[in-house]
Design a protein that fits this description.
Helix 1 (about 15-20) packs across helix 2 (about 30-35). About 20% of the residues lie in helices and about 30% in strands. The protein folds into 3 domains: about 1-65, RNA-binding S4 domain (Structural Genomics Hypothetical 15.5 Kd Protein In mrcA-pckA Intergenic Region, Chain A, Roll); about 70-165, Pseudouridine synthase (2-Layer Sandwich); about 165-305, Pseudouridine synthase (2-Layer Sandwich), CATH 3.30.2350. The longest helix has 12 residues, at about 150-160. The chain has helices at about 15-20, 30-35, 110-115, 150-160, 235-245, 295-305; strands spanning about 1-5, 40, 45, 60-65, 80-85, 90-95, 140-150, 165-175, 180-185, 190, 200, 210-220, 220-230, 270-275, 285-290. The strands form 3 sheets. Strands 5, 6, 7, 8, 9, 12, 13, 14 and 15 form a 9-stranded mixed sheet that branches. A 4-stranded antiparallel sheet has the order 1-4-2-3.
Length: about 300
């Protein structure tokens, strides 16, 4: 059981909104469930309902039950493996695949496939829900992802990520014509102040984030670009390009509500090149994931309307 205590700093705020702002890792609906089950008290008394209003200096106590982690089963899901040895493998993740199990996604994930392929031999540093996973890419982002089979490899790759020495180059198609041939976005990325499901440029609570971009080709209303990351914040490329007025094509979270191309599922973003120093040999290596078929077809369509 995890206990947290907060003090209200103003009058009139709903208890569920107050907690959601201070514990952004939990959904508002989950916090409302905790309120309903008497896990939240105000000045020592159980909060009657989620719409309770706080007054300044109220003491709010919340008890968060320990997480019950489900068994994650190996599944014979085909993998597109770009490289593999005794310490690690690099996979080309397809669109629509979740990287690791989480609420609502306990099967069909990359981890389920990896447990089967590696016969359970994955690093355990990130726990039972994320064995072998050092970094992630979004469900609808395709491309290169490194996975560690042991803790030695995991620690070495995690250190390279921390020091921003891993090479990560992405391909993307964005709305609008970018006139500069290249540029850099240096703006902190953090949780959106009002929508916890989104990230945003956040100068108050965000983390340092730097994206370099280069124009590869311009079309009538879109631009094909390559993005290189110095940092790897959640949704970094999506947020940074949207901040320039050039959201990713197909990104319904940070871009237009409707995609101009039918059957386009999610953002046009592909983790093409992944380069790092091998944790055992010390040699630098790069893996390149070819553009997925949907991306190639889209580029061909754009060529015809250039």
């Amino acid at each position: 059981m995890n206990r947290m205590v907060f003090t209200a700093d103003g009058d009139g705020e709903r208890i569920d909104a107050f907690l959601n702002e201070r514990i952004p890792d939990f959904s508002r609906s989950y916090l409302q469930k905790l309120i309903k089950t008497s896990c939240v008290t105000i000045n020592g008394k159980a909060a009657a309902k989620s719409s309770c209003r706080l007054v300044s200096d109220d003491i709010v106590n919340i008890e968060i039950p320990d997480e019950v982690k489900p068994d994650i089963c190996p599944e014979p899901i085909p993998l597109d493996i770009l490289y593999e040895d005794g310490d690690l493998l690099v996979v080309n993740k397809p669109k629509g695949m979740v990287v690791h199990p989480a609420a609502g996604h306990y099967s069909g994930t990359l981890v389920n496939a990896l447990l089967y392929h590696c016969d359970g031999c994955l690093s355990g540093i990130n726990g039972v829900l994320r064995p072998g996973i050092v970094h992630r890419i979004d469900r609808d982002t395709t491309g290169s992802l490194v996975v560690c089979k042991n803790d030695l490899a995991h620690r070495a790759l995690a250190e390279q990520l921390k020091n921003h020495t891993i090479c990560r180059r992405y391909r993307a198609i964005v709305h609008g014509r970018i006139f500069d041939d290249e540029g850099t976005v240096d703006a902190p990325v953090g949780r959106h102040p009002t929508d916890r499901k989104k990230m945003a440029i956040n100068h108050k609570n965000g983390k340092n984030a730097i994206t370099h971009y280069q124009v590869l080709q311009r079309f009538s209303s879109f631009t094909y670009i390559e993005c290189s990351l110095e940092t790897g914040r959640t949704h970094q490329i999506r947020v940074h390009m949207a901040s320039l007025g050039h959201p990713l094509l197909g990104d319904l979270v940070y871009g237009p509500a409707k995609s101009p191309f039918r059957h386009l599922e999610g953002q046009c973003l592909h983790a093409m090149t992944l380069g790092f120093v091998h944790p055992r040999t010390g040699d630098y290596m790069e893996c390149v994931a070819p553009l997925p078929e949907y991306f190639e077809i889209l580029l061909d369509k754009l060529q015809k309307i250039i």
